[in-house]
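User: Hi! I have a protein structure encoded as tokens and I'd like to know what sequence might fold into it. I'm fairly new to this, so please keep things simple.
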């Protein structure tokens, strides 16, 4: 506000010491303020809380923890990172992939104009999918959606061998590129709406009974990095996510159900793995297709094997970021992250779970694994009373706080933790039995002396 926008004058009374200031407001200044008040926010749209908005900038609080996990490394998809020079190499190949896709579907008489016209009516819906106001005009935005979407579809088709690929295609033959593409296509800031992909896919590859679904090709593509059984993915072949990250996240949460539990003195965060072990909690790997399927029965905590590596750690962080930003999403991954963060509090906890085959560490040292889980739970919103693991939290704490379990675990640790302590305990029991028998016969003979 400039000083020229308003003027002041003093009005002093004769009999008093008070001074009244009369402020004269410039009408042009009022008009300027009214214009700024009516401006809509651009960095976080008002529509960001709606169901239609599903692609977000990662919050700064999460970004500071692990910036590399959220930024694309070699390819930009969508508007948030468009035009940055570090992604120019793959940007040059996008046009080639678009040309390859059009040549493969020329028997369907589909040309570039058809793809553009199919996406153009969706412009407003596309803009509402992003948390920021997009600076691109309509033509540039539609072209970006078609180019990026066709690049993804052609990549899926070439890797899935739906379309033939050149034997010397550098994007498929250079060992470092394809894994980097897989990581980048599953970053929250690097998404385009799934409905755009689906329309382009239906026009080009097809949606008939003899054609694979887009979800099937997408899940098969990313399965090269996680290697889950194909029969575990079949139930998701007809699913549609908000985008590729959401689709892949859905494939992990099939059997989970959030439930609201009443308040209880046992319903709070659990202790770390080493402390639970000290009171007798057993840890066993659970054979299941979903890492979220955790059970607690009769003092045994069954946890699906977690194979943690660079790909999974990046994916995990983007899952959590999406659940934190998208109000309409369930919080399954956030709950799992909180649970594992409780168990793995120190490097000793990470090593302990590794020894019990619950964690397969391809990520780094035990210190790095512990640091990762300590960081992933920072600045995230988690409602323990409304989570799919609330019953497990409650039952584990009830077991941990049971005095009998503590005493029995202490007894076992003292006398049965090593072969030598076990042998000493057995020897002591035998000696006690022999002493008892000897005392019994001495008393017996005293009261029943033998007849001479």
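Assistant: Happy to help. Inverse folding works backwards from shape to sequence: for each of the 452 positions I chose a residue that suits the local structure. Here it is:
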């Amino acid at each position: 506000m400039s000083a020229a926008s308003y003027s002041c004058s003093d009005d002093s009374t004769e009999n008093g010491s008070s001074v009244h200031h009369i402020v004269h407001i410039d009408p042009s200044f009022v008009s300027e303020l009214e214009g700024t008040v009516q401006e809509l926010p651009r960095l976080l749209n008002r529509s960001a809380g709606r169901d239609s908005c599903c692609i977000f900038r990662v919050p700064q609080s999460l970004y500071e923890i692990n910036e590399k996990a959220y930024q694309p490394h070699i390819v930009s998809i969508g508007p948030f990172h468009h035009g940055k020079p570090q992604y120019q190499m793959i940007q040059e190949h996008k046009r080639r992939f678009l040309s390859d896709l059009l040549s493969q579907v020329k028997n369907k008489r589909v040309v570039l104009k058809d793809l553009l016209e199919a996406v153009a009516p969706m412009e407003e819906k596309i803009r509402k999918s992003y948390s920021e106001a997009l600076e691109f005009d309509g033509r540039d935005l539609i072209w970006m959606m078609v180019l990026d979407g066709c690049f993804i579809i052609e990549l899926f088709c070439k890797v899935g061998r739906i379309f033939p690929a050149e034997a010397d295609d550098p994007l498929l033959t250079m060992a470092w590129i394809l894994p980097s593409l897989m990581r980048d296509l599953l970053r929250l800031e690097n998404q385009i709406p799934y409905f755009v992909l689906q329309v382009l896919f239906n026009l080009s590859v097809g949606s008939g009974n003899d054609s694979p679904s887009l979800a099937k090709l997408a899940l098969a593509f990313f399965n090269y990095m996680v290697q889950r059984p194909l029969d575990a993915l079949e139930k998701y072949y007809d699913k549609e996510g908000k985008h590729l990250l959401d689709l892949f996240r859905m494939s992990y949460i099939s059997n989970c159900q959030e439930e609201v539990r009443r308040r209880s003195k046992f319903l709070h965060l659990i202790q770390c793995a080493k402390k639970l072990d000290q009171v007798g909690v057993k840890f066993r790997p659970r054979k299941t297709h979903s890492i979220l399927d955790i059970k607690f029965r009769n003092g045994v905590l069954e946890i699906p094997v977690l194979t943690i590596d660079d790909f999974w750690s990046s994916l995990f962080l983007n899952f959590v970021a999406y659940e934190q930003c998208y109000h309409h999403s369930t919080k399954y991954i956030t709950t799992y992250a909180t649970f594992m963060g409780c168990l793995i509090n120190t490097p000793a906890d990470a090593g302990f779970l590794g020894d019990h085959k619950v964690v397969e560490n391809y990520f780094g040292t035990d210190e790095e694994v512990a640091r990762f889980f300590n960081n992933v739970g920072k600045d995230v919103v988690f409602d323990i009373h409304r989570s799919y693991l609330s019953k497990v939290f409650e039952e584990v704490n009830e077991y941990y706080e049971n005095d009998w379990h503590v005493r029995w675990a202490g007894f076992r640790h003292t006398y049965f933790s090593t072969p030598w302590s076990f042998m000493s305990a057995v020897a002591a029991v035998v000696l006690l039995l022999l002493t008892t028998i000897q005392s019994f016969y001495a008393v017996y003979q005293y009261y029943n002396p033998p007849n001479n």
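A useful reference point when you look it over: Strands lie at 6-12, 19-25, 259-260, 282-286, 295-297, 300-304, 306-308, 359-361, 386-387. Feel free to ask if any position seems puzzling.
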